[in-house]
Amino acid sequence: MNSSISIKGLSVSYDRKTVLSNIYLDIQPGQLYGVLGPNGAGKSTLFKSILGLIDINSGRIEINGKTIKEQRKQMVYIPQRGEVDWQFPATVMDVVLMGRYPFKKIFQRLNAEDRKIAMDSLEMMGISQFKDRQIGELSGGQQQRVFLARAICQQADIFLFDEPFVGVDITTEQKIIQILQKLAADGKTLLVVHHDLSTVRDYFDQVILLNQRLVVVGDTKTTFTEENISKAYGGQLPILHKTAIHK
After folding, report:
1. How far is CA 169 from CA 61, 87, 125, 143, 196, in A?
2. Which position among 51, 174, 199, 229 has the lowest Cβ density within 10 Å, counted as fewest Cβ atoms?
């Protein structure tokens, strides 16, 4: 089976400090992956490497057997809410339509088909009634749904989510995970940086445990064990980890 994302020997450092060391990963389509590890483990750096946003020290990354540059349109990144300027004067529809820009040539306008795809994405996320609102007027959960709608609007194959459940209510969290699970069932590839260990077993098919190096990757049922979590988190092991394992 071909990997959606093939990572061989990836190492990255900032200011001579190693952030990721000799990472080997084969990420398969149709699976929902949870990316877990303590602060500073290199989770966001892994995403930036896959997206080609940073220089890497060594290693090779292939997307669907091709270079990152060749497959950029097939990847979509959903950042943490804290990274976004919510005062930007854009409506919800404006933001979602940004998902269509990778398919347009310079100066080419959006058309009726683009708007229909955007509207369908908003309806899927249950927020079509907010399409003319300024993005900053929405609640945290609604804003996260807008960014997920933009990602769906891009019709990508690979989705990278950086902590999508931070600052959202439980209703929105359940809605988002249902959408992610449906995308996986449709054969998409999804990587989700996640910090709440208590929901890992319910949410993810596969887990990747990182702490600058790859601790372990595999099926959640067999890989998300107390021993492996301790290896990944060390002294930062969350107090509630026993509840997470034995739920």
Report:
1. 35, 21, 14, 12, 14
2. 174
Instruction: Give the span between the Cα atoms of 27 and 43, in whole angstroms.
Output: 15
What is the amino acid identity at position 187?
A: G
CA proximity to 130, closest of 114, 111, 144, 117: 144
Distances 124 to 51, 93, 94, 151 between C-alpha atoms, Å:
26, 14, 17, 12
Domain extent listing, the chain? 5-246
Distance CA 63, CA 77 (A): 14
The residue with tokens 């359940």 is: 174
pLDDT tens, position by position, 4-43 = 999 999 999 988 899 999 999 999 999 999 999 998 899 9
| Sheet hosting strand 213-219, strand order edge to edge | 75-78, 158-162, 189-193, 32-36, 206-211, 213-219
Distance CA 232, CA 12 (A): 18
Q: Could you say which residues of the chain have pLDDT below 70? A: 1-3, 81-86, 235-247
Which CATH number among 3.40.50.300, 2.60.40.420, 3.40.50.720, 3.20.20.360 corresponds to the domain 5-246?
3.40.50.300
For residue 167, count other CB atoms closer than 10 A to its CB: 15
